[in-house]
Amino acid sequence: MSSTRPSGPPLHLRVANKKAYVWDVEDIATIRTKHRLCGVFTGTLPHLSQQNLFLGVPMVLLPEEVVLLVENESAVLVDDPKAYLEPSVAELQRWSAQENELAQLRLAQLAAATKDSPAMSEEAVQKRKERELKKKAAAEAKAAAEAASSESAETDTSVFKPPEEVAAPPAPVDVQYTVVIPASSTPFEWYNDSACAYTTIQSAKDAGIWEYPSDLHERAKCGVFRGLWEQGMFMGGGIKFGGDYLVYPGDPLRYHAHFSASVLDSPTSALTPMEIVAHGRLGTVTKKSHLLCGWDDEKKAVSYLSIEWAGFG
Amino acid sequence: MQAHPSYQALAHILPKYPRAAGSVFQAYNDILHVQKWTDVKVVDLEGVSRAAITGKKPKTDVTLHVVPCSLAETLSFGWLTTTFTLLSDPPEILLAITSDDASIVYYKLSRGIVKPQV
User: Fold this and answer.
1) Angstrom distance (rounded) from CA A191 to CA A83
2) Residue from the list A266, A268, A305 with its beta carbon closest to the beta carbon of B111
3) ipTM
4) pTM
5) Whether A301 contacts chain B with CB within 8 A
6) CATH class of B7-108
7) Cβ separation of A309 and B78 shorter than 8 Å?
8) HSE, side-chain direction, 13 A CA sphere, residue B23
9) In CATH, what class is A1-85+192-212?
């Protein structure tokens, strides 16, 4: 198919632990707009790694997406750990100089910021802490004196006394530091993936960095994924609707999914009527059809059946 | 079963496919007496060892194909494609899924990628 031929240089998918990551934002944009693949963002913020509402780079591609890109010669698989060569002294010195320059820049920015709001300076924080400590000590002394003077009169009612006010911890005044964590390693002079980039799935398998597809089920998934993709569909994970994929007629940001799809490995693999009922009813309720995608590994062809509730019975 | 008024129409089918007899009988009665379809006919589908039921919904003029099966059966994608072929490739078939407690549910299976109705 001529439309699947690459027009630019192949993308470099960084493989680590048999997963393919994309770190470059430009590459992510290309994958989304030109190759019509969505991937999944997995990067969290370094200091808030448990929040997962807003994720960013790196993007992890579904294995089916990786196979599709590599087979279309739109991407190569890079054995990422091997792409970091031993840096030379000169390279390290240049890197170190650059880091220093950046650090100086950051310090200058910090100084500029604290000048504008003196309350943020470290000196001010220190003074404030001292003031609060003094205040607290005075309040404690006063409370102790009161308690001593009233103790004799109110011994039996003391349980009703309101609990002693716990001094609120001083409001934290953080001095914020900005630490830039580079997402991509490609600018490093010692990063060179030319010796460990694989242009075919088979060569990547031979090198031991990639496994998918390794059996009939995975071949069926790759075949079905390609079949739907070639029809212009966008695919996302189907777990929310109990299928293998959610199938969108265009970019998921613009369209609702019309289908949930499940993959049947072969024309003879078991399909129970209960599955048809479950998929069909869920799809109908969510205004989707369910696609049964039957893979034929001998013909390397996929055919589809759409399930909908009949509307009666 | 033999005493049932519907038996006569199915007499040539039910003894031939004893395993599917229950669901064919149940689907036929539901289509004829509950859904009140017209022009109801029975089509022998030897390749999948059962009969299909064709007919038209009340006040419509489109012939639909109903293929009965039991909830306890195990089907396959190939089985479904064969059924389509045996019925000379209609755009859709209705799979009538029957269960032991006499409940029945119909699902529409269409060839290819067919968008859901809005």
Assistant:
1) 6
2) A305
3) 0.93
4) 0.80
5) no
6) alpha beta
7) no
8) 24
9) alpha beta
